[in-house]
Write a structure and sequence with these properties.
Radius of gyration: 16 Å
Strand content: 5-15%
Strand order of the largest sheet: 3-2-5-6
CATH architecture: 3-Layer(aba) Sandwich
Structural class: alpha/beta
CATH topology: Uracil-DNA Glycosylase, subunit E
Number of domains: 1
Helix content: 25-40%
CATH superfamily: Uracil-DNA glycosylase-like domain
Largest sheet: 4 strands, parallel
Distance between the termini: 32 Å
CATH class: Alpha Beta
Length: 224
Amino acid sequence: MPDQFVAALGAYRSEAVFNPWGESDSEHDCDHQGPQVRSRQLQKYLAERIGTAKTLLLAEAIGYQGGHFSGIPMTSERLLLGGLSHKNLRAELVFNDLPAQRTSKPELRPQGFTEPTATIVWGFLVDQGIDPRSVVLWNAFPWHPYQPKKGLLSNRTPTDTELAAGHRVLWEMLELGQYEQIVAVGEKSFSQLQQLDISATKVRHPANGGAGKFRAQMLALLER
């Protein structure tokens, strides 16, 4: 099932949107195998969680420092490559067996790209002793929207039209996982769930100084 889901995910195309599982970043990928590597890594990530994970943690969109190169939402290449082991974040937390691969050119970031939000989210799971396979990380808009004038190494907020295009994928993800709890990370993802009449709890997005509140609200959820 995850392989079919990822294959369908890779078919999407839109202006000023990069599809990590269907497109090569000719300027920043280390070779032409980027989409295939990212697809394998997402398939493996989902295969270890779908059917057992109880919680879906839903943020806004893929970012260039995270899923753009790792292929996994809210997960950085540096984590996959072992560059965050000093923070107790190991590649095996993401998936086992399959060797993690980088897709970005090493000269861009020798240790791989790293995303603050990804580090905070994974760090919270580890610090609280939460089994990372009990949670699926996802995005309301599952692809990477970028600023055309700044290029692929930039982020932007997805438009309402783009978010609507992500609704079909979101429904498929919910049907695939049959989650007991959905947590919206930030206002944008929460509003998408509201539009679809999907019950969810909202927590602060950890970006832009929100890390402390994110952790506190997530802890309150755990206590309940």
